[in-house]
Amino acid sequence: MARAATTSDAFNAIAEPQRRDILALLRAGERPVTDLAQELGMRMPQASKHLRVLREVGLVRVRGVGKQRLYGLDARGLRPVHEWAGGFEQFWTGSFDRLDAYVQDLKTQQEE
């Protein structure tokens, strides 16, 4: 089965590690493409391409300030990813609870 285009949804867009890095940088606030490219060690055209994909799926917004375009995180686009990943929270919580109970049992046995 062919993989969906990277612009089809947030899941495909964030499958690319460099796009995840861009999103992580944008958590701190808006930045121009030149800053993002420099921070990530990539050329501006490459950074612009990644930003276009992120913008098309609704993960990044852009606004003009004079001659500069500032890119910012639009976390609302991550809602489907958050909801999907949140489904595993119960699994991990249960696993950690069982691990904690096991450790407590070991401590009790050592004390006896």
Please give a structural write-up.
It is a single chain. The protein has 112 residues and is of the alpha+beta class. It has 6 helices and 3 strands. Strands 1-3-2 form a 3-stranded antiparallel sheet. Strand 2 and strand 3 form a beta hairpin. The radius of gyration is 20 Å and the shape is elongated. The N and C termini lie far apart (58 Å). The mean pLDDT is 88.
- Runs in which pLDDT lies below 50 for 5 or more consecutive residues are none
Q: How much helicity do the residues have?
A: 55-70%
Structural class: alpha+beta
Kindly state the number of beta strands: 3
Order of helices and strands: HHEHHEEHH
> Biggest sheet, in brief?
3 strands, antiparallel
Amino-to-carboxy terminus distance: 58 Å
Name the features.
112 residues; alpha+beta; 3-stranded antiparallel beta sheet; 6 helices
What's the short story on this structure?
With 112 residues, the protein is α+β, with helices and mostly antiparallel strands. The protein contains 6 helices and 3 strands.
Describe the secondary-structure layout:
Elements: H1 10-13, H2 17-26, E1 31-32, H3 33-40, H4 44-56, E2 60-65, E3 68-73, H5 79-86, H6 89-111
Antiparallel strand pairs: 1-3, 2-3
